[in-house]
């Protein structure tokens, strides 16, 4: 199975979690997913009142410089950890 197929499978598996991951875990998932699918962040930081948007932007920004393939591998490993934790 190719890396892209494993990545897509992990993205689907996350939707089947029976318990809700923590906010930090969601941010990590978001950041790795965006880095894997888009690459380095390409938007400006949201405004002062958009707390959720800023948190997501900061999480994605923290992955800047990571290759898309490395981000996919990290995402797959992180999803595997979540699946074990939240079965």
TrEMBL record:
Transmembrane segments: none annotated. Gene3D superfamilies: 1.20.80.10. This is Acyl-CoA-binding protein homolog. Residues 3-87 form the ACB domain. The keyword DNA-binding does not apply. One of its GO terms (molecular function) is fatty-acyl-CoA binding. Pfam families: ACBP (PF00887). InterPro entries: Acyl-CoA-binding_prot_CS, Acyl-CoA-binding_protein, Acyl-CoA-binding_sf, FERM/acyl-CoA-bd_prot_sf. GO terms for biological process: fatty acid metabolic process; lipid storage. Keywords: Lipid-binding. The keyword Magnesium does not apply. It comes from the Eukaryota.
């Amino acid at each position: 199975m190719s890396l892209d197929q494993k990545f897509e499978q992990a993205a689907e598996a996350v939707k089947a979690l029976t318990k809700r991951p923590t906010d930090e875990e969601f941010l990590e998932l978001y950041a790795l997913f965006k880095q894997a699918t888009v690459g380095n962040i390409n938007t400006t930081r949201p405004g002062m009142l958009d707390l959720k948007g800023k948190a997501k932007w900061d999480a994605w920004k923290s992955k800047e410089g990571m290759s898309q393939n490395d981000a996919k591998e990290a995402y797959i490993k992180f999803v595997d950890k979540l699946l074990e934790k939240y079965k």
